[in-house]
Amino acid sequence: MRLPIMEVQEILRNNSIANKFISQLRDTGVQGDRMRFRRNIERLGEIMAYELSKELEYETCEISTPLGKSQVPLAKNEVVICSILRAGLPLHQGILNYFDDAENSFISAYRHHPDNDEKFEILVEYLASPSLEGKTLILADPMLATGRSFSNVLKALEPMGTPARIHLVSVIGSAEGIEFLKTEFPREAKLWIATIDQELDKNGYIVPGLGDAGDLCFGNKLQH
Questions:
Q1: Closest by alpha carbon to 85, among 133, 128, 160, 141?
Q2: Which of 10, 66, 92, 135 sits CB 3.0–4.6 Å from 83 for a disulfide?
Q3: Which residues, 6+ apart, have CB-to-CB distance to 158 below 8 Å?
Q4: What is residue 222's three-state secondary structure?
Q5: What is the pLDDT of residues 150-192, one digit of tens each?
Q6: Measured between alpha carbons, how far is 215 from 222 in angstroms, rounded to an integer?
Q7: Residue 86 CB burial class (10 angstroms; 0-12, 13-18, ≥19)
Q8: Average pLDDT in the 25-32 region?
Q9: 181 in any annotated domain
Q10: Maximum CA pair distance of the chain?
Q11: 1 occurs within a structural domain
């Protein structure tokens, strides 16, 4: 029998300035400003990194000030941030702004339509990563639709070692995709997500969502 499922922390369950960032990401009247789009994803990454930091392990360290000594609890976890290219780059930067001494990992995952119809598979073709053994792994991807990208990436990272803890960070996700991830990730994993939409359309895109985050960040891509 499976142990209790992973925890989900939805940031917009409580109102905050994050509401503004999400509204601008969704708004077709604002999306044309790629720099603002990227920056809003980055800012949401910062918010979720701050919240996530509360669950790290801390030890008290002594530092010297100009007038004496101060005891400060500092995180002792070895953190690795892994982003899913290409839409994950601004989110990665937001997390890295707060975990500035973290190691970094990058992986590709994209939808491949072998029959040129709505059916697709998630392909992983590129990986650059340090060892994950015993470390705190943060997986970052702004859009959590079916959940298969996160699942396939987790499998691709297995040769890199076993993390002590896994945190997933996303901006917008579907309820269906989150339920799928609960069956794929260990119960100790935790998902940090700004907001959750209830629907996926027949093509596996989040509704109302915001569109293609990678294209909105970096420009339209040629299909292949």
A1: 141
A2: 92
A3: none
A4: coil
A5: 998 999 999 999 999 999 999 999 999 999 999 999 888 999 9
A6: 10
A7: middle
A8: 97
A9: yes
A10: 70
A11: no
Question: Which has more pLDDT, 107 or 114?
Answer: 107
Beta strands in the chain (DSSP E): 7-10, 58-65, 68-75, 79-85, 103-108, 110-112, 121-123, 127-128, 136-140, 143-144, 165-174, 190-197, 199-200, 206-207
In terms of DSSP H, where are the helices of 17-174? 18-26, 34-53, 88-98, 148-156
Report yes or no on 223 lying in a domain.
no
- The structural domain count of the chain equals 1
Token pair for 31? 């999306």
CATH of the domain at 49: 3.40.50.2020
**Amino acid identity, position 214:** G
**Residue range of the domain that includes 159:** 7-218
Instruction: Quickly tell me which residue has 């005891």 as its tokens.
Output: 71
Structure tokens at 186: 């260990």
Do residues 212 and 188 touch, judged by C-beta distance below 8 A? Answer: no
How wide is the angle at C-alpha 77 spanned by C-alphas 157 and 195, nearest 5°? 65
d(CA 149, CA 91): 16
The amino acid occupying position 38 is: R
Name the average pLDDT for the chain. 91
Q: Is residue 192 part of a domain?
A: yes
Backbone angles phi, psi at 204, to 5 degrees: 80, 25
- CA pair distance 6, 180, nearest whole angstrom: 11
CA distances (Å), 192 to each of 27, 52, 66, 150, in order? 22, 8, 39, 13
176: left (phi over 0), alpha (psi -120 to 50) or beta: alpha
Which sign does the torsion angle of CA 125, 129, 132, 137 carry?
negative
